[in-house]
Design goal:
By secondary structure, the protein is an alpha/beta fold. 36% of the residues lie in helices and 14% in strands. The protein contains eight helices and seven strands. The protein has helices spanning 12-20, 25-33, 48-54, 58-61, 79-82, 88-94, 161-188, 199-208; strands spanning 2-6, 67-70, 75-78, 99-102, 116-119, 132-134, 193-197. Helix 7 packs antiparallel against helix 8 (199-208).
Length: 214
């Protein structure tokens, strides 16, 4: 099995410091067994997911932001509505590979013949991590042990103290929820490819990290 675990946009110097302080021993062990490769990220942050899911450049998929202008429709569309259908998961599925993908942020809702895609395990939000699954039963009886998924919306502007405390609590719980979902799905289905997106890190960076510290 190939496992892809996306740490979702943390600070690399912070990760390196945590490893040096022996606060991330499992990640340190993985690094010692493998090879660190620097990726060539797209120049526009808003195009990262579409490029990651399709392997296409911005000039090919045309998705440059969470909200992207659709010229034919003359209106804004959410990025996942414009991502081409021929995603990485679809290509793996056509090749007969069994895919389990958990919490791929801003991913279009897609059926897989041989796999499972689940969104909204760590938390749910309208645009970044909507709650859905294919097959639909995957978010039902297979993951009902997680209970109700907490809502974690991002505030564009000045968030309230109450909202930040709410986010803090759900983001602390998010890794445990994600790990539990991974364990349960792998118990029930063999996989050739496991894809796990740790979207909680991304949201925490947006809402809780002081930009002045960068």
């Amino acid at each position: 099995m190939i496992a892809i675990i996306s740490l979702e946009a943390p600070s690399l110097p912070l990760i390196q410091q945590l490893i040096a302080d022996n606060r991330m021993p499992h990640l340190a062990a993985l690094q010692q067994k493998g090879q660190v490769v620097e990726l060539a990220s797209p120049f526009l942050d808003g195009s990262v997911y579409a490029t990651l899911y399709t392997g296409q450049h911005l000039s090919e998929h045309g998705v440059y932001s969470l909200f992207t202008w659709s010229a034919p429709e003359q209106k804004l569309r959410l990025s996942h509505e414009l991502i081409p259908d021929d995603t990485l998961f679809r290509r793996l599925d056509r090749a007969g590979k069994r895919v389990i993908a958990i919490d791929p942020p801003e991913h279009p809702l897609q059926e897989l013949t041989n796999g499972i895609v689940v969104s909204g395990c760590q938390f749910r939000s309208r645009v970044h991590l909507a709650k859905w699954s294919r097959p639909s039963s995957a978010n039902g009886e297979r993951l009902n042990h997680l209970g109700k998924t907490p809502r974690g919306e991002e505030t564009f502007g000045q968030p309230s103290q109450r909202h930040l405390l709410h986010l803090r609590n759900l983001l602390i719980e998010a890794p445990g929820r994600l790990a539990s979902a991974v364990e349960r799905l792998l118990e029930e289905k063999e996989a050739d490819v496991l894809w796990v997106g740790m979207a909680a890190i991304h949201l925490a960076g947006h809402q809780l990290w002081d930009p002045a510290s960068v």
